[in-house]
From TrEMBL:
This is Putative DNA endonuclease SmrA. Coiled coil: none annotated. Keywords: Endonuclease, Hydrolase, Nuclease. It comes from Grimontia celer. InterPro entries: Endonuc_SmrA, Smr_dom, Smr_dom_sf. NCBIfam families: endonuc_SmrA. The keyword Oxidoreductase does not apply. Residues 96-176 form the Smr domain. The keyword Nuclease applies.
Length: 194
């Protein structure tokens, strides 16, 4: 087949095709926009200062095993700080025991507890969730607690406790300073320089 015959064949095949009137893309239809409820949950998840616990789901959590060691550290937390927390070297000034709590009550109590600790400038706490060896499914409370702590942005890091403080049935939690305490610290450092 020579080039002319191919071109004639192409022209014959395309005889009934109509040309496109315009060649620009219509951007008027934007992709998915979040709903008001989704935006509200997203804002609530930003810090402990929000009062609505609903952004912490009680519908699903990745299930852990009772003896799993849990660890979480946000970017920016120094390795030395995290290691000291993991080894239980920080003084614990507050404790929350979640034994006998329902998931919903535990979620609400964790938020209330962490908010109160932040207001009182308590930075390192321990939350006892239990191992959940006899629960069905095993370690259910532990799984949800760890998921919630990761979602609360004012939680800087957490790690399973040392054996003498509950081991894998408890977590050490380090909380960010409140905005007021950050301002006080900044002012104190500025006054020192002056």
């Amino acid at each position: 087949m020579n080039g002319n015959n191919e071109f004639d064949l192409f022209r014959e095949m395309m005889a009934d095709v109509a040309p496109i009137k315009h060649d620009t893309v219509d951007n008027s239809q934007q992709s998915h926009k979040p709903t008001e409820a989704q935006l509200a949950r997203q804002l609530a998840a930003q810090s402990l200062s929000e009062g609505d616990p609903e952004y912490l789901s009680i519908d699903y959590a990745k299930i852990l095993k009772p003896d799993d060691i849990v660890a979480f550290k946000r970017p920016g937390v120094q390795d030395g700080v995290f290691r000291k927390l993991r080894l239980g070297k920080y003084d614990i000034h507050a404790r929350l025991d979640l034994h006998k709590y329902t998931l919903k009550d535990a979620r609400d109590e964790i938020l209330r507890f962490l908010k109160q600790c932040q207001r009182m400038d308590i930075r390192t706490v321990i939350i006892v969730h239990g191992k959940g060896e006899r629960s069905n499914p095993p370690a259910m409370m532990k799984s949800y607690v760890c998921q919630w702590l990761e979602q609360i942005t004012d939680v800087q890091c957490f790690h399973s406790a040392q054996r003498h403080q509950g081991g894998t049935g408890a977590v050490y939690v380090m909380i960010k300073k409140s905005q007021e305490k950050k301002l006080e610290t900044r002012e104190r450092h500025l006054n020192r320089r002056s």
